[in-house]
Amino acid sequence: MLLTALGWIAALAFLGAAASSGWHGWRDKAPGPWIAAGLYACAAFVMLAIDGALSPLTAAALAFLAIAGAGTVAVVDGRNAAPGSRWKGAAWRTRFAVGAGARYLGSDTRGIWQRVMARFSGGEEAPTETEAVVAGHVASRSIPNVMADPVLGPAPEPAALATAAPVPPVYAAMAAFIGGFVPEDDQALKMFMQSNAAGELAVADAWHAFGDTCLTAVGLDPAYVAGLLEAGDSAAAHGALLAMVHRRFGVVYAAVQEWISAGRQLPHKAREFLTGEAA
Questions:
Q1: In this structure, are 60 and 164 located in the same domain?
Q2: Domain assignment present for 136
Q3: pLDDT digit string (tens) for 81-113?
Q4: What is the chain's alpha carbon radius of gyration, rounded to the nearest angstrom?
Q5: CB atoms within 10 A of CB 182
Q6: Model confidence over 121-145: pLDDT tens digits?
Q7: Is 135 inside any structural domain?
Q8: Number of domains the chain contains
Q9: What b/e string do you get for 71-97 counting C-beta neighbours within 10 Å, with b at 16 or more?
């Protein structure tokens, strides 16, 4: 009875690790978590066969597919690594993926538990594991904000940044979208500004997710990851800035909107027709 219970616990743990790694692989568009997902799924199928939930033949077929998929990703990803890189080699990547998969499961489990507890307590969500780890290192090592760090020197000029590297296509498309937009009315303008504010928050979440990847999967120093989290916070602040910019539209045109709402009409080409303060 005890062995059966332990077998089910192990199977569920392996399935959880496989699901968690698969989620990180899909979210981060990274091959490493998919290797871990295949390995943990293979172990889960074996345990389910031992527990009697799957027939040996079915478990063997599923385990073979899982391990074959993980092995293929490891070999292809290892082959694409630069010569001399510590990432090179499928065996190294496989060993790394196993440890990373366990950390993914632990991090996701704690994150879900913190969100549940925050929801029931009525308070704000607790910081993620990455944010907590980075905050501890920042406090203990007195790491300043990136823009205020004297070791880094002055920030580069925008003109230098513009020519330092090619603009990614997705950013070029976004720049063309913003620069070429012509609002047909105030509702179109409102939707445009609100959508861009929401987009900045999505970018902020992406920088935080990238920071989590660099800390838990790549193993970079928390001092560097602190800068990535700052980048996410800056993007979120920019989203709030866009919301405030459009709030000014309402302040500037409040009197005009009240006039129209009262059933009154503005003269044709009102800007050219009216003079003095009315203009």
A1: no
A2: no
A3: 444 444 445 555 566 566 666 666 666 666 666
A4: 27
A5: 7
A6: 555 555 567 777 787 777 777 788 8
A7: no
A8: 2
A9: eebbbebbeeeeeeeeebbbeebbebb
- The region of weakest confidence among 48-57, 73-82, 100-109, 226-235 is 73-82
Claim to verify: residue 183 and residue 114 sit in the same structural domain? no
Residues in the chain: 279
Cβ neighbours for 13, distance < 8 A, ≥ 6 positions apart:
105
Q: What is the mean pLDDT of residues 235-250?
A: 92
Name the residue among 15, 228, 269 with its Cα closest to residue 7. 15
Report the C-alpha gap between 273 and 266 in whole angstroms.
10
Q: Between the CA atoms of 182, 188, 189 and 191, what dihedral angle is there, to the nearest 10 degrees?
A: -130
Q: Is residue 129 part of a domain?
A: no
Question: Is residue 270 left, alpha or beta, with left meaning phi > 0 and alpha meaning psi from -120 to 50?
Answer: alpha
Contacts from 104-110 at CB under 8 Å and sequence distance 24+? 104/17, 104/20, 104/21, 104/23, 104/24, 104/33, 104/36, 104/216, 104/217, 105/13, 105/16, 105/17, 105/20, 105/21, 107/212, 107/216, 108/20, 108/23, 109/16, 109/20
Tell me if 42 is assigned to some domain.
yes
> Residue 173 is part of which domain span?
160-261
